Request: fold
Amino acid sequence: MSNVASGALGFLHKSHIVAEPGFNRWRVPPASIAIHLCIGSVYAWSVFNPALTRELGVAASSADDWSLGSVVWIFSVAIVFLGLAAAFAGKWLEEVGPRMVGVVAAFLWGGGFIIGSFGISSHQLWLVYLGYGVLGGCGLGLGYVSPVSTLLRWFPDRRGMATGMAIMGFGGGAMIAAPVKGWLLDMFQKAPDFLGAQDAVATVVEGGRLFAETAAGKVEVVVATANQAATFGGDAGVYVVGTGNTGAAQTFLTLGIVYFVVMILASFQYRVPAEGWKPAGWTPKPVASGMVSQNNVHIDQALKTPQFWQLWIMLCFNVTAGIGVIGVAKTMMSDIFGSVLPLVVTAAFASTYVMMISVFNMVGRFFWASTSDYIGRKATYMCFFVLGTALYLSIPFFASAVATNPAVIYLIGFYAATMIIFSMYGGGFATIPAYLADMFGTMHVGGIHGRLLTAWSTAGVLGPLAITSLRQMSVDSAIANLASRVDAAAFADKFGAPLAQLDQLVAAKTVTIAKLMEIAPEGTIDPTPSLYNTTMYCMAALLVVGFLANLMMRPVREHHHHDEPELQAVPVE
Reply:
């Protein structure tokens, strides 16, 4: 027995949490879902961006407030450390069990919020990065993988459904967290001191900062517009810097405490089945494809198998295609349909579209993972790649068709296609743990899953990079094509410069597709709806590669199998 099992924290070790006979295995999924709901709130990070960029000015950003560019990277750091923690701590998870890992995740995730709270209140950005980004990110990784191996052992008869339930919680975490975070920010915020309307207050600029003379002396101020002041029910005008509160620090502190308590309570619900336990009336039997192994592969040995890297490619490319579209979904909807169906595709419609993405992402995690229990993991991923390829190729069709014939039917087709895509994006995450268990057994599946999540980190970079760079290439090509069609004199008259300076005008954002369309010859088709065609073709190509990797999947060869007692129970004294 390891020193960890007999030390001060030994009561958290897996050898001390072996379930007693008659234990109800359905107590474990709610605990897993609770933890994933807590850590899934990371996807609602953007709710904090406005508050953090005006923490001092409150009504508007002041000179010393953090820039948006410096704040948005906190989320990226958290995701990077999620992948790193999952990859490096996976082996430790298999050694100590889910309860200890869940407790550590609670301290890191909840504590990360609390440290971030101190960073916000003291206006030390590095503390927010350390707390939420580094420590919180590690908590994300540990919390994400902690229930996987446990659920797979408790539900060998329904592996997909079990992991789908937990990982569905991660997808739904943002849906709950976004309104809760907004409510807390509103509750804790305090309006700064109002000096009056802008034209009624004498101000002076010194060193780039705005100051106003008051009875108490010169104070730094900001000028808020009506929209900015409306966030706390104020009026447009001049506000004193440092006298209000966005509520961000208190919100961080509150969430840190709540998440810590929920995750601790959930972690203590974890139990592991006794060696040799099986559900009543269930007999293990291989499916028709022979893709479910009754043997185990050690975590270190798994990386030496082609199956691990095939699964890595499959997850990476499925996520790359999905995450790239999710990142620009609202913009894509507006670009393709906003100009041709303006009465339908309004700002409210686009916002509802984004909300539905979250719904299908969440529901798809449970639906596809559960479906995989009946049709098999390989067949489920075949659906992702074959159906996904067809759906990605349909998007250029809908875009081109609506540009020439603005009919709502093409919008409906686009909407349906993308919703199915987003369901399969979430389904890929939820099905992969069960696929790993089928290939490598359940003994080390938590650690293997952690290492496989490096595919997520890679896709998080590849997806957005690919879709933004390919879109920009399409924009440049469309502008060059339109410029070659317009009359040179009309161009010079509209933009005040000759066509020879097109590149400089584009770089300065003086020339755009919309402005060129104003002087384009009659009958010219607006290329805006087709800006994503190249991107969709490339995403479809990635899915074809994933399809081939899945097609070549075979059972792990016998020489990789590893025989080892799954768990050694320790007598309770």
